[in-house]
Amino acid sequence: MVGPILGSMCQKLKILRGLLRQSGLFAGVLVLLMGAPVLGGEDGGGGDGSDAQREKLEEFIGWLLDTDDRVLANVRFADVVKAATGREVRRFDPEDPVDAEVMAGLSEAFDVVFADIRREDHPVHAVGRINEVSGVIEDLVFDAIGRQSGFSSTWPLNARGHVQRSGYPDIRIVHDASGRVYYLDPKVYREGSERSGFRTFYFEPRVETNKILDDAAHLIMGIAHRGRRGEVWEFAEWSLVDLVDFRVRLKAEFQASNREMYAPEGLRLRGGRLGGNSEEGR
Fold it and tell me: Is residue 70 located within the same domain as residue 95?
């Protein structure tokens, strides 16, 4: 079954590749990659595929490695969202009365959070790693927005109807009077790294775990920090970013877990065994 599917997919990639070069279309590639089958043997482990399958796989990988397809390096996030979810990314317009009201409410909530976390006795300063600080601040922002009159904040549901904390976006905000939806993602970063090329934003389109279920404005709350000053984290400022014109790039990556890495069929030697059992998952 894999052979025909793989052949069809590679043929579609040829067509889409031409479309990309001619018109900059992205949606077809994204949808195709979202629904792409496992490449290789039917057991998902590579198997002993035919020469024809290997040739098609090589063609597929060659396409992924083709650096001439620069369209995948400068894609509007709004187009990605539309292709992956069917939802629109709406511009956050300070001149619009509803957006202006939301911006004022967010500003007030963010100021409350900053005043709170700048207290030297705040629990956030007991957190040792900045990545864990992000989770604490996310909860504080969620609560502060929920206390604003005229707004409600919820943890987004995924397409299966389940609350899901992991993945983009973090917080779903509703303006009660208009019913307008806003997605907010708080992110902590080092002050001065605004021009850094390191990846700090991730969006992995999945059908069942998709959390973008509304046409909405997409916003980032940036929290700049200066590291620790003694025993206290020093927070410099907050910022609000509209993602309507945000540009992203697609990274092709092949992955595996320890389950695949240490599978019995690949194991050749083992030695130096320490007596007793280790804790599971360590």
Answer: no
The burial class, CB within 10 Å (0-12 / 13-18 / 19+), for 26 is: buried
Give Dmax over CA atoms of the chain in angstroms.
69
Query: Domain span at residue 38?
Result: 2-74
Q: Token pair for residue 173?
A: 């905000």
- % helix, strand, coil for the chain, step of 5: 40, 20, 45
182, containing H or E segment: strand 181-190
Indicate yes or no: pTM above 0.85. no
* Domain assignment of residue 270, yes or no: no
Asked if 118 and 143 sit in the same domain, the reply is yes
Q: In terms of domains, do 154 and 241 share one? A: yes
* 153 strand-pairing partners: 173
Total number of domains constituting the chain: 2
pLDDT in tens, 6-62: 444 445 445 444 444 443 444 444 444 443 434 444 444 444 557 777 777 777 777
